[in-house]
Amino acid sequence: MNVLIVYAHPEPKSLNGSLKDFSVKRLEEAGHTVQVSDLYAMNWKALLDAHDSVERQAGERFDPSRESKHAYANGLQSKDIEREQEKLKWADAVILQFPLWWFSMPAILKGWVERVYAYGFAYGVGEHSDARWGERYGEGMFAGKRAMLVVSTGGWESHYSSRGINGPMNDVLFPIQHGILYYPGFDVLPPFVIHRTSRVDAAKYAEVSDALGQRLDALWTTTPIPFRPQNDGAYTIPDLTLRADIAPDRVGFAAHVE
Ligand SMILES: Cc1cc2nc3c(=O)[nH]c(=O)nc-3n(C[C@H](O)[C@H](O)[C@H](O)COP(=O)(O)OP(=O)(O)OC[C@H]3O[C@@H](n4cnc5c(N)ncnc54)[C@H](O)[C@@H]3O)c2cc1C
Hints:
It is a single chain. By secondary structure, the protein is an alpha/beta fold. It has a single domain, classed as Flavodoxin domain (Rossmann fold, 3-Layer(aba) Sandwich), CATH 3.40.50.360. The chain contains seven helices and eight strands; from the N terminus they run E-H-E-H-H-E-H-E-H-H-E-E-H-E-E. It has helices spanning about 15-30, 65-75, 80-90, 105-115, 170, 175-180, 200-215; strands at about 1-5, 35-40, 95-100, 145-150, 185-190, 190-195, 235, 240. Strands 1, 2, 3, 4, 5 and 6 form a six-stranded parallel β-sheet that branches. A two-stranded antiparallel ribbon has the order 7-8. A hairpin with a 4-residue loop joins strand 7 (about 235) and strand 8 (about 240). Helix 1 runs parallel beside helix 7. The radius of gyration is 19 Å and the shape is globular. The relative contact order is 0.14. Flavin-adenine dinucleotide binds near residues 100, 101 and 155.
């Protein structure tokens, strides 16, 4: 299998750096082919702007979606974007690995998503009708591929528990897991989260890497998070609201998990 690790940490000797190296080795030893997009090492351009197309459309006003659609459809995207899209097409599984910074991914990784997820590639795909609302949330370019987050946090596990002060980890990660990964079609595996990183020493590292190794070994067999597909009848179209008779007591993020 082909595995792409998109990795965002500025320091190779960090905990994240060590765990990324560990993952590459573990996956390769299991016979998989691995590519790493090491965003800091690549000096990845994080800002989506008018330079993302090698030939801008005429007109003074820069419209990010329209420009992305035009560049993607006409082979005018900048090469760095194209290269990452090729890696995504190549991958059977994608791992996004990052330290949690301000309750989300580091800006460089967000910028990777914004630029690489072009109109016509990751969004704006498929028919819009009374029965379907595009190919997204369970359908789309990445259908059949798996994705998983590997995330480290300074906060403790209890801080991210169901009544923890930071909010439950599933809620914190929902915009990434449901919005960035499930939206374009990935089957999203439960995240691998390392909490309270300041306490990681050699003994804890051995424990963490062992647990991560087990998750990597089970990359192809782990049951994905059962997010609800958009076009299978659970949502009314076009208002895209969960039907009143489905999980009537559930609201918010949890309502979108079967
Ligand atoms: C801008 C910013 C925003 C943040 N926002 C949040 C937030 O919203 N929520 C939150 O919970 N946290 C937050 N944090 C904390 C952040 O998530 C952690 O600092 C980060 O996850 C630690 O990962 P690291 O790879 O940088 O660890 P490092 O600092 O590199 O390492 C952590 C520990 O692991 C040890 N270690 C590293 N490698 C090894 C190895 N190979 N063997 C044994 N021990 C090792 C180190 O000695 C160190 O003690 C934030 C931090 C920053 C800088």
